[in-house]
Design goal:
- This protein is α+β, with helices and mostly antiparallel strands.
- It has 15 helices and 17 strands.
- The longest helix is centred in the first third of the chain and has 20 residues.
């Protein structure tokens, strides 16, 4: 007997059944609606990129390139990577038409991304991510704007400010803090930054041991930790957000953001619920990323918000509920028997020409069961098509929600249905 193939998807990816797709569509539609109210325009690109895009110095980080990318040799002997991150792609696109574009730019996309890592809650090997970026504005208010957008996105899902916290830091300010401690070597600072990026995922002892191996001085380890735990820090971005009425924000010097391309403001938004106390989105300012492609630099600030962590947040705070609607037909046409299927399809065509969503139940189930199925699918109306209806030209439109009926010709019922659904 032939061995049967498994029904499970590839490890770390998801199947989207209609009920899952309804949630996904709600998330994507809310993202789209909110970012476009901030004046952002949508772009996209292929999931395939030359592997060199991520290997270039400052593009992402060595761990991602070496351990987490899906990279392969194509039939033309080119090394290709499934994109793990969108920022290098949008930087490539902006650099490619740098002279033709009118800055500043406000761009967004909802790409799917691939990273070979251990699948766990909030982190899969494939996910979709809202990416929003502003290019061409050096002033700190662009940082305020992009974080205000991230804040508004959660508010528009029904969240309240107590459900999440904005944690803010700045790579340039951290370099100044390190310089004040006598640490000026870029590679040492990068090592400390990468360690800080993992600080909340390891024990204090593990962190201190790793930090000591980098700086080689116990007193310096203590000084660094003291600076990281300062509670009174502030900066102009923090104050700007407060001016806009966004108060669930604080400076957190342990925030590092692992990508090498960040140069200034960095931030994360964290769920405050103890059962889901994790980062939901993050981003920052990158002023040199386009130098991979051109000598000119274009300043940028942006963030990414993943669909997996977004759904976890919504479910944790019970924010889905009535917002999720299946893509149900407005009308289900029910043939009394299979001999009436084609006649029913002809009638459905008339309704569809008027942009009515119509499904024809072509099954051999009994009429009562077909009506029950239409109700369960969320349809609003049902139309029975049998020999009597076809011979007389008189049909009955059933309102499944209110259990009322309307009789007449197809033209009459079409007019009635449109007037009651628009």
């Amino acid at each position: 007997m032939d061995k049967k193939l498994p029904t499970e998807p590839y490890k770390g990816v998801r199947d989207f059944y209609p009920e899952d797709m309804a949630i996904q569509s709600y998330i994507f539609n809310t993202w789209k609606k909110t970012v476009e109210t901030f004046g952002f325009e949508r772009y996209d690109a292929s999931i395939l990129e030359p592997a060199d895009l991520y290997k270039s110095k400052g593009a992402v980080n060595a761990e991602m390139v070496n351990d987490q990318t899906y990279t392969f040799i194509d039939r033309g002997e080119r090394e290709v990577t499934l994109r793990p991150e969108m920022t290098p792609t949008v930087a490539r696109m902006v650099a490619g038409k740098h002279r033709e574009l009118s800055f500043p730019l406000r761009w967004y996309s909802i790409p799917n991304l691939f990273r070979y890592e251990r699948a766990q809650r909030g982190r899969l090997r494939e996910h979709w991510q809202l990416n929003c970026d502003i290019f061409g504005i050096e002033h700190y208010t662009a940082d305020v704007e992009i974080i205000a957008l991230a804040h508004q996105l959660l508010i528009d899902f029904g969240a309240t400010p107590d459900m999440f916290e904005i944690q803010l830091n700045n790579r340039a300010e951290m370099s100044q803090i390190f310089a004040g401690l006598g640490i000026t070597e870029p590679e040492v600072i990068n090592e400390i930054t990468r360690l800080n990026d993992r600080k909340k995922k390891i024990t204090t002892e593990e962190y201190e041991t790793a930090l000591l191996s980098i700086v080689g001085d116990t007193a310096l380890v203590n000084q660094i930790q003291e600076k990281l735990n300062c509670q009174n820090d502030t900066n102009e971005v923090l104050e700007g957000l407060k001016t806009l009425g966004i108060n669930n924000v604080k400076i957190d010097r342990t925030i590092a953001r692992g990508f090498d391309y960040y140069t200034g403001t960095i931030f994360e938004i964290v769920d405050t619920d103890p059962s889901n106390n994790r980062s939901m989105l993050g981003g920052g300012r990158y002023d040199n990323l386009l130098k991979m492609f051109k000598d000119e630099s274009v300043t940028g600030i942006g963030f990414g918000m993943g669909d997996v962590t977004m759904r976890d947040f919504l479910e944790t705070h019970n924010l889905l509920g009535a917002h999720i609607t299946k893509t149900a037909p407005t009308l289900v046409i029910i043939p009394t028997d299979s001999d009436r299927n084609l006649d029913s399809q002809k009638i459905a065509h008339l309704f569809r020409q008027r942009e009515v969503k119509v499904s024809v139940d072509l099954s051999n189930k009994k009429i009562g069961k077909k009506i029950s199925d239409a109700v369960n699918r969320g349809a609003t109306f049902a139309l029975i098509v049998g020999p009597d209806e076809l011979n007389s030209g008189n049909f009955t439109l059933k309102n499944l929600a209110f259990e009322t009926e309307e009789s007449g010709t197809i033209d009459t019922l079409l007019t009635y249905l449109i007037s009651h659904t628009t």
